[in-house]
């Protein structure tokens, strides 16, 4: 047993939520991978290694181990704490003061219960209490792992899976063992999203305070395996255009083209399959919006993040009550956005009748940027022309370009590519579309090609009275500039936005700064 000591003398350990990130590389021979990095230092770690029995990579979340006696004691402390305080109410306050509060409560309860604990046990308890009352229990460290993109739970007794930025889909050692714990956890997710789940309204679609997207189902149906949830983590700092060049997602030419299109108020749709990187590209090209212009963005769940002031972000709201009142849809938001007189309207994703309003908006003069599910231009046009969207060919003609994003395996690595940029030249009355494809990515040699002249450039030249050769010159110089930023490693979102804004005001100065003049 541990020596008798006064728990009040133990110093509260520091929880480091952003320990240094390792540099991870994917290697061909996965059986050689064995990596460990801290998540919440000094308590939790990610350990990724090759599981030779399953013949796959495994993600083990390492947390301090508790003896059965410690587990039991901790369980009692948690119950006692729940009875004393309502954590739901204090969660909004400053983290440090809540941590200090938990520490005080822990010390008080241990003293009261009269069972002394060692310093080591005390520190472990403190960590677990943080996780339980402030954090997100079993998955808290996953949420802190910079490399995790998605967290997926498919029910009771099934290991959680994560999507890792470098190693992709990995099984983990975290399992919700009983339905009650999992149901409680889904309720906690709902509550942290400011939403409500119940058996009567069992679908949760929300956003956590850190911006992560949550989808969950709440059920105790025994035939299914109980509640499920997926969390798409919010990359707090959006990826900037030069960063997408670094990822080889697209070419500097493609970006320079999109920059000009955005500047000259074109209408752009980004298409692609699930998690093909549509929203990420949308966010990146939104950096190109001129600083003085007014932007309204409309989303179901908050994903877009723009480092600009002149921006009104709006998020739709599902019904907040059991009766279904209080609902604000994308359609409602879009209609009201026109009254705000925006220069740019960004819609996170179009699915239904809001597409009609979006296209009408394009017709009324401002620029629209949005994403849509569909893996080719043909599918996208079909989707726009058929129910529930039902756009007329005339309205479709307002669209300038469609960017098609795709998943691709290159050199054994999962990547995202801007597969092609297709310009809508003419949609005929029978609904068929004449298109022009200035940019493509060739999967055989992993290169990007600038194939054709751009019809949208011609349109811009016409509409704004800019000679074509001027436009091409600008395209070339911006290509070089974007490439320079990439080479110099200028990725920070504030810095990139600053440079783009500066380029709008004093282009020659920026070009001189980067040796292009
Ligand atoms: N260019 C890229 N390179 C590498 N990873 C990327 C890239 N773009 C996006 N990702 C990663 O892929 C995941 C999905 O990205 P994103 O949300 O942009 O896709 P999406 O197509 O909008 O997905 P959804 O279909 O859910 O709307 C994110 O976790 C993101 O970190
Ligand atoms: Mg998206």
Features:
binds adenosine-5'-triphosphate, elongated, nine-stranded mixed sheet, 3 domains, Beta-Lactamase, binds magnesium ion, Rossmann fold, alpha/beta, 517 residues, 17 helices
Q: CATH fold name of the largest domain, please?
A: Rossmann fold
> CATH superfamily membership of the largest domain, which one?
P-loop containing nucleotide triphosphate hydrolases
Beta fraction: 15-25%
The rough form would be described as: elongated
Our Rg estimate from Cα atoms comes to 26 Å
How many domains? The number is: 3
- Tell me what the CATH architecture of the largest domain is: 3-Layer(aba) Sandwich
Question: Please, what is the average pLDDT?
Answer: 90
Provide the CATH top-level class of the largest domain.
Answer: Alpha Beta
Discrete helix count: 17
The biggest beta sheet is recorded as: 9 strands, mixed
The neighbouring-strand order within the major sheet is 1-2-3-6-5-4-9-8-7
Distance from N terminus to C terminus (CA atoms, Å) equals 75 Å
The number of E-state strands comes to 18
pLDDT under 50 segments (min length 5)? Answer: 319-323
The amount of helix comes to 25-40%
Give the structural class. alpha/beta
């Amino acid at each position: 047993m541990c020596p008798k000591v006064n728990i009040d003398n133990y110093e509260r350990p520091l929880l480091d939520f952003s320990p240094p990130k390792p540099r991870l590389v994917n290697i061909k021979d996965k059986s050689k991978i064995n990596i460990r990095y801290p998540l919440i230092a000094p308590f939790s770690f990610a350990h990724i290694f090759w599981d030779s029995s399953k013949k796959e990579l495994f993600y083990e979340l390492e947390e301090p181990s508790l003896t059965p006696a410690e587990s039991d004691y901790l369980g009692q402390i948690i119950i006692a704490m729940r009875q004393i305080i309502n954590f739901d109410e204090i969660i909004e306050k400053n983290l440090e003061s809540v941590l200090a509060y938990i520490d005080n409560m822990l010390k008080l309860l241990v003293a009261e219960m009269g069972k002394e604990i060692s310093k080591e046990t005390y520190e472990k308890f403190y960590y677990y209490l943080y996780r339980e009352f402030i954090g997100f229990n079993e998955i808290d460290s996953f949420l802190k792992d910079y490399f995790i993109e998605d967290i997926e739970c498919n029910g009771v007794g099934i290991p959680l899976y994560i999507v890792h930025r470098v190693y992709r889909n990995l099984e983990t050692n975290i399992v919700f063992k009983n339905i009650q714990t999992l149901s409680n956890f889904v309720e906690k997710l709902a509550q942290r999203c400011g939403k409500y789940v119940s058996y009567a309204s069992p679908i949760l679609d929300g956003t956590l305070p850190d911006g992560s997207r949550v989808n969950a189902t709440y059920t105790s149906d025994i035939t299914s395996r109980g509640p499920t949830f997926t969390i798409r983590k919010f990359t707090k700092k959006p990826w900037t255009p030069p960063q997408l060049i670094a990822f080889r997602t697209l070419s500097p030419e493609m970006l320079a083209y999109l920059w000009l299109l955005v500047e000259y108020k074109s209408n752009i749709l980004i298409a692609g399959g699930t998690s093909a990187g549509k929203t990420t590209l949308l966010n990146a090209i939104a950096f190109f919006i001129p600083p003085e212009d007014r932007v309204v963005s409309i989303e179901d769940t908050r994903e877009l993040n723009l480092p600009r002031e002149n921006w009104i972000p709006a998020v739709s709201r599902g019904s907040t009550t059991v009766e279904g009142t209080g609902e604000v849809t994308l359609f409602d938001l879009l209609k009201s956005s026109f009254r705000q007189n925006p220069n740019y309207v960004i819609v996170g994703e179009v699915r239904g009748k809001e597409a009609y309003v979006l296209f009408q908006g394009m017709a009324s003069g401002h620029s629209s940027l949005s994403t849509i599910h569909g893996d080719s231009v043909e599918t996208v046009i079909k989707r726009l022309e058929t129910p529930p969207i039902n756009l007329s060919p005339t309205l479709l003609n307002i669209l300038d370009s469609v960017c098609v994003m795709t998943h691709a395996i290159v050199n054994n690595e999962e990547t995202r590519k801007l597969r092609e940029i297709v310009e809508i030249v003419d949609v005929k009355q029978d609904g068929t579309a004449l298109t022009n494809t200035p940019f493509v990515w060739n999967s055989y040699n992993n290169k990007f090609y600038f194939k054709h002249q751009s019809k949208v450039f011609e349109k811009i030249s016409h509409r704004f009275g800019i000679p074509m050769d001027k436009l091409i010159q600008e395209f070339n110089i911006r290509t070089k500039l974007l490439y320079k930023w990439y080479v110099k490693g200028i990725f920070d979102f504030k810095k990139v936005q600053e440079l783009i804004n500066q380029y709008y005001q004093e282009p020659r100065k920026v070009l001189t700064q980067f040796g292009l003049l």
